[in-house]
Amino acid sequence: MGFHVSWITIRGIAPEAVREQLQLRETGEREELPESDIAEALLPSGWQLIFFNDPCPEEIEDKNLKALSAGCEVMAFVVEECSMTTLAMSYVNGDSVWHVAHDSDSGLEHMEVTGTPPVCFSEIYSKLLAELKADENPCDYLFDVPAELSKVLTGFRHDCDIEGADGDVFSILEKT
């Protein structure tokens, strides 16, 4: 099993405009957890979340994230637990700002960073790297760096409850 998902968070434009640009529409159905192919939630942090039960939907391709971020801020996240890879990306006003990725096939200490991630990246990375180095039987601690970075910045992590949210917080979406 494991997670094989991705999501986009957006702030700075109306949720309706995001759905229109991504060619998505609300079905009128809701769910407590994002178990449908595509779901949406408005996070307490102010970000709009579009969640995909697919690690590689076309919506998270670089060109599409650049287009979506015109006039706003976008973060995207991918987790593929079979291959133990995670990726977090940030886009603002049509430009890629930073990218943080871990691929365990490249080693337990692998961390690819492009651009300038936010200050909290260094804190998260240093803490998890120290745990890795202190563990006599280390596991893949750095796998959590992109996920923790995303949680700190948006308030959402794919494998945690949304703090401050109760009930059926996810609206089920479908492609138009």
General description of the model:
By secondary structure, the chain is of the alpha+beta class. The protein has a single domain (4-166), classed as Alpha-Beta Plaits (2-Layer Sandwich). Helix content is 23%, strand content 35%. It contains 4 helices and 9 strands; from the N terminus they run E-H-E-E-E-H-E-E-E-E-H-H-E. It has helices at 15-21, 62-68, 119-134, 145-154; strands at residues 4-11, 24-31, 38-42, 48-52, 73-80, 85-92, 95-103, 112-115, 170-175. A 9-stranded antiparallel beta sheet has the order 2-9-3-4-1-5-6-7-8, sandwiched between helices. Strand 5 and strand 6 form a beta hairpin. Helix 3 packs antiparallel against helix 4. The longest helix has 16 residues, at 119-134. The protein is globular and about 50 Å long. The two termini are 30 Å apart. 31% of the residues are buried.
Topology (SSEs and partners):
Layout: E1 4-11, H1 15-21, E2 24-31, E3 38-42, E4 48-52, H2 62-68, E5 73-80, E6 85-92, E7 95-103, E8 112-115, H3 119-134, H4 145-154, E9 170-175
Antiparallel strand pairs: 1-4, 1-5, 2-9, 3-4, 3-9, 5-6, 6-7, 7-8
Helix pairs in contact: 3-4
Main features:
176 residues, alpha+beta, 4 helices, 9 strands
Helix content class: 10-25%
CATH fold name, please?
Answer: Alpha-Beta Plaits
By CATH's scheme, which homologous superfamily applies?
Answer: Api92-like domains
Tally the beta strands: 9
Q: Quick one: overall form?
A: globular
The biggest beta sheet is recorded as: 9 strands, antiparallel
Order of helices and strands: EHEEEHEEEEHHE
